[in-house]
Every structure is written in structure tokens, then in C-alpha cells.
Protein: ABC transporter substrate-binding protein
Organism: Rheinheimera riviphila
Amino acid sequence: MCRYLKLFSCILVGVSLQALAAAPIKVGMSAPFSGRAERLGLDYRAGAQLAFNQINQQGGIAGQQLELITLDDGYEPLRTVDNTRQLVFHDKVLALFGYVGTPTSNAVLPLLRHEQIPFIAPFSGADLLRQPADHFIYNFRASYAQEASAQIQYLVDQRHFKKIALLIQADEFGASVERNFLAELHKRQLKPLVISRFKRNTTDLADAVAALVAQKPDVVLTVGTYQVLIDAIELGATQGFNPLYSVVSFTGVSELTSLLDPRQQVLASMVMPDPNQSKLALVDAYRQQSLAQTVSKAALLPAMAQAKPRLSDVALEGFAAATVLVGALKQCAATMTRQCVLQALPQQQLYDFQLQYDVQRHQASQQVSLMWLRQQGLQPVSD
């Protein structure tokens, strides 16, 4: 009888170990999947899922599937806090990944600092996420400071514009980039004609645009999301106000291009290559995975047979950041701990996309490029 009990116990232990081995590696993401900034969250998630699906189809990480748990925060910080508490304490995720936005990320920083949970590749270039003491943060993208520097070098140093205004989202995102713009202008003994502000996710831009029109700047440096900025540009145009606008990468350059009147002049600083035209192996891998997913969907939905993959700079960034995360998880397959993942992330390479990890800012990529938004697509400023 005792022998049978031991055998039964061994079987139970074996089953338990198999179940444990098969448990998914859970990663949590809070982002806008609805509202006026929804395309940012939807595209970043779509790009990340391409990389996660690819590794899962290959058997996962040492047999464990990678599960991305996503919650909608509508780009509102209070909802981000609730989502994060659920992901950390209820879902018990290994790490948080791809949070979209500076105000939303800022809202959860106290919780993250207390729990020391890995906060990987937030979709933000803010300085507040690049503090030396925050070793639990891994920034994939270049910073807003680097984007502001690139924009001002071109617009002021090369093009010699001096009549400059700022159109700024009134929150931590706007404040972060505004400080970078003002610092760059101050180096050149310049001040903006006006700093006009608007609320996050707003539909009321009348006062903000009126303040710009009254000053008649030649250049408007903007900080906001694609839909709000399109509304502001179109409202100004109805009043005969058509300056040169600039946008930062967070705006959602691909989405902005699709909505933009081709008569408008818009310059974008980007932290990723052109997802449609770049010849980098990274971008080719992203396009190939996007095509494979479209073909797979078409097999299930014949109506999609002629559909083309939807490519965007935000989705490409999601794909790139997720690919780096997958590499780190593979490296930690034998010891899947948060500490191992944080140590492995800076060691990763990404196809032929150059990464040069900055220990002080916890930042992997330093790449920024300037593009004109044209009807036919993105055009480098050198062209």
C-alpha cells in the first residue's frame, strides 16, 4: 500500500512540474486602446504581438508561451494606476512592457519604485523615466531631449528661423518636451513668441490656436498626439494660419501623415526608421511578419484576401522593443527572474539597428532622424 502511495505521489509531483513548466511568462501592458490616442496603443501592441507570436509559434521560451496581458487606460493616468495594480498584484506579471505615454508612466512611478518591477520600453522619451537611480527601467527609444536638439539644430541653426511658438499638451508629456525645447532655444539666445497649451485628449482647441494666430510665428513646435494636432492644424488653416509645424515621435507620425492635408508643412523627429521604405534588416523582418499575419488572417477571412499590411512607425517600435525583450527572456530561460531580465536587456542586439546602451539614462537607442511628412510618404530632410 505504501509503495502505491509513493508512486501516486511521484505521479502528482510529475504532473505539477509539467504544469509549472507550461505556465506562461506573463508581461503586462497598459495603453490607450480607445479614445483620441488609441492608435498609439493599438499599433504598439500590434507590433509587439508580431514578435511574441513568432517566438510562441517556435515553442516559446524553453517551452513556456509568452503572454501579453493588455489593459486599456484611454491615455488617462488614474486608469493606468488601476491597471498597473491589477497587472502587478492580481495577474502577477513578470514585467511591465510598452506603457504608452509620459503622464501615464509618471502616475505609476511610485508603485514601480516600491515594487522594483521591470518597466520595459515605455513609449516615451521623457527625462523622468531616465533617472540614474531607477535601475528597474529599460528605455528602448531615444529621448525627447535628443529629439528637441535635432529639431532646433535644423530649424534654427540650418534654416535660421527665429519667430518660433510652442503648442503644448498641458501635462507631464508637454512639460518634459517643453523644457527640452526651451533649453535648446536658450542656448541660442531665443525665446518663443508664445507658449500655447491645451488639455490632453481635448476637442476644444479654439483658445490654443487663437493664441498662435495672434503672434504669427513662422514655426510652431508641437507636443501632442496625432488627432489633437491634426485638429489644431486644420483649425489654424481655416483662419489662414499655415506655419511650418514640427512634431515629436510620440505624436504617431504614420497616423498623422495619413490624416494630413498635403498642403501643410510638417517636420517630424523620429526614433525609428521609415517602416515603408527603410532597407534595414530590422524593418524587413517587421514587414515580413506583418505580411505573414495578414496572409494568415486572409485565410480565415476571404474578404481580406487583397488587404495589405498596415505599417506604422509606432508598430515598428513595438516590434523592435518586443524583439529585444524576447532576446533577454531567452537568455534568462534557465533562471527566469526579474533581476536576470533587467541584466540581460542591455546586452541585446537588434538585427542591424544600432543600440548603444546609456547606463545613466537606462536607454538603448540613441537614434533620431528628421523627416518631412509628404503625401507620398516620409522624406528625409536632406532630400
The chain has two domains: 17-142+280-366, 144-270. Residues 109 and 129 are 9 Å apart (CA to CA). DSSP finds twelve helices and twelve strands in the chain. The domain at 17-142+280-366 is CATH 3.40.50.2300 (Rossmann fold).
